[in-house]
């Protein structure tokens, strides 16, 4: 049970700091709402009618692709640390891994997944 004491202490300290920062920002933060700030959109344009049609999801799709490839790169860090122990086997594993990522990238690119149009 003593192993978890410092983890619990760290979690409690983190929650106290987060709570204190939220309370301080609420108390000390500027409060000067104006009619311009209270309108629905930052641009200041009040909508005249409801939106029609479907919205394109290209941005979200490209963002998901970025996250997927970014997470895959995280797997390269432990490999780089242990490369001297893995030797040729580790090198071949990483070449296969990068080849799979390359095939996925070429597939997404060929299907037009990275186009903004």
Identify the notable features of this structure and list them briefly.
117 residues, mainly alpha, Methane Monooxygenase Hydroxylase, Chain G, domain 1, 4 helices, 66% helix, 0% strand, flat
- What amount of the residues lies in strands? under 5%
Output the helix-strand order. Answer: HHHH
Determine Rg (CA atoms, Å). 25 Å
Mean pLDDT: 84
Distance between the ends: 57 Å
By CATH's scheme, which homologous superfamily applies? NADH:ubiquinone/plastoquinone oxidoreductase, chain 3
Count of separate structural domains: 1
**CATH-defined topology:** Methane Monooxygenase Hydroxylase, Chain G, domain 1
Helix content: 55-70%
Task: Characterize the main sheet.
Answer: none
What is the second-level CATH architecture?
Up-down Bundle
- Please report the number of helical segments: 4
Poorly predicted runs are none
CATH class: Mainly Alpha
Class computed from helices, strands and strand pairing: mainly alpha
Mass-distribution shape: flat
Number of strands: 0
């Amino acid at each position: 049970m003593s192993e978890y004491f410092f983890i619990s202490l760290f979690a409690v300290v983190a929650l106290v700091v987060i709570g204190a920062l939220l309370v301080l920002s609420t108390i000390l933060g500027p409060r000067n709402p104006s009619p311009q700030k209270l309108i629905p959109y930052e641009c200041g344009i009040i909508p005249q009618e409801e939106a029609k049609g479907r919205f394109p999801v290209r941005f979200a799709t490209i963002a998901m692709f970025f996250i997927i490839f970014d997470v895959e790169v995280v797997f390269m860090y432990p490999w780089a640390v242990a490369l001297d122990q893995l030797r040729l086997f580790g090198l071949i594993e990483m070449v296969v891994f990068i080849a799979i990522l390359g095939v996925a990238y070429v597939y997404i690119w060929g299907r037009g997944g990275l186009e903004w149009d």
